[in-house]
Amino acid sequence: MRSYKSYILLIAVMFIAAGSFAQQGEFRLTASYAAAIPVGSFKDNIVSKTSFRGVDVNLLYGVTPKLSVGLTTGYQDFYEKYPRQVYKLSDGSDISAVISNSVQQIPFLATARYDFISSGLLRPYVLAGVGGQLVLNRQFLGEYTNDNTNRFAFAARPEAGIYIPFGKEAHTGINLGAYYNYIPYNKGSIDNMNSIGIKLGIGFPMRD
Amino acid sequence: MKKSWPGIALALLIFTGCAKDPLNNLSSDEARLYITNHNDSASFSSYTSFRVADSVAVIHNNQLQEKARTDFDAQLIEAVAARMQQNGYTPVQTGTTPDIGITISRVYNDYTGVISYPDYWGGYGGYWDPFYWGYPGYGYYFPGIIGTYTVTDGAISIDMFDIKNAKANDKLDFLWNGLIRGSGTFTSANINKNVQALFDQSTYLKRN
């Protein structure tokens, strides 16, 4: 929960920063609900279930009518409980346990977005983000903590989507996107925490 | 209307941003661990008889407190004996030397922590205003409280020793150990389930 609070604080700072620069261009915020599907060794060895608990936020400053740059943050919570099973340990003992894996990812990405068209009711875009993700990874054997690793990992994200304004003259609209979360993460039997994300949200300018 | 978008975005983050708590999502049965270990060089079919010690050792912080035979202990001893018979071993009475000697222990360990209340509750709305004591406008002064708390974690350990070859080995060699740990370990209703789980995952532990 602590990391979640600091993330809210970051959003608040973004609002203040956006307000003070509003005259020089246009800051736009896109706040979305996000779902994510684990892939690769993340899916095979940690959590195979799709996460429906996530948010994604872009704060972007318009450099030209089509190109904007800024920051991406968000939050995604992955969780899976595996039914009771007997596991063989390296010392020869057998342990029967219900294993729960819990992973939270919080991205901090420098982001660039390119809108192919800047008018009309359907505006496709592509987005690229590079930076890091704070990855909180916990494993429980029954009610006992077996692993608790917090790590800041390199992360990159290509994204494609479409922006649909509420009207021809409207500055606010719906934003629908899909992205690939690339997070190399070497630990035990896994080498990444990659996932495919889908987001649905609202984009609006940061001004009165 | 435009001004409400940031609020809506923030609400979205708060509603979807919380992680699923892995421990709250565990039932008492799922929270328990069953751990077994055995002597690799032992041939369990070479033993024919056993006896379970008629009381249970209570070990607290690595010290033997007492040997007890509560209703719980008696049921536990009975459950282990019944399962040994089911696996083909013959129980022998006190006075006869068995091939396998079985002892059961209840093991408790205390973990101590510190809790601190840095300030008085006076800051809470609805707490007794100093007016209550006849001193309106006064403030409370309070240096803060530091308290300690102790959590006891318990386990049941079932140990089997090689009595048959004690003379040849010049010691009571370890044959098998089963450990029950976690929520519901000391609940009478779980005794049979817990003992069955330990034996079920030790398929080698039988006469034939």
Summarize the structure.
The complex is a heterodimer of chains A (208) and B (208). Chain A is mainly beta and 208 residues long.
What do you see in this structure?
The complex is a heterodimer of chains A (208) and B (208). Chain A has helices at residues 2-20, 40-45, and strands spanning 27-38, 53-62, 67-88, 94-115, 123-141, 144-165, 173-181, 184-187, 190-192, 195-205. The radius of gyration of chain A is 20 Å and the shape is elongated. With 208 residues, chain A is mostly beta strands. In chain A, the strands form two sheets. An eight-stranded antiparallel beta barrel of chain A has the order 1-2-3-4-5-6-7-10. In chain A, strands 8-9 form a two-stranded antiparallel sheet. Helices cover 23% and strands 34% of the residues of chain B. Chain B contains five helices and seven strands; from the N terminus they run ααβββαβββαβα. In chain B, a hairpin with a 2-residue loop joins strand 2 and strand 3 (63-68). In chain B, helix 3 runs parallel beside helix 5 (191-200). In chain B, 24% of the residues are buried. Chains A and B meet through helix 1, strand 1, strand 2, strand 3 and strand 4 of A and helix 1 and strand 1 of B. Strand 4 (94-115) of chain A pairs antiparallel with strand 1 (33-38) of chain B, so a sheet runs across the interface.
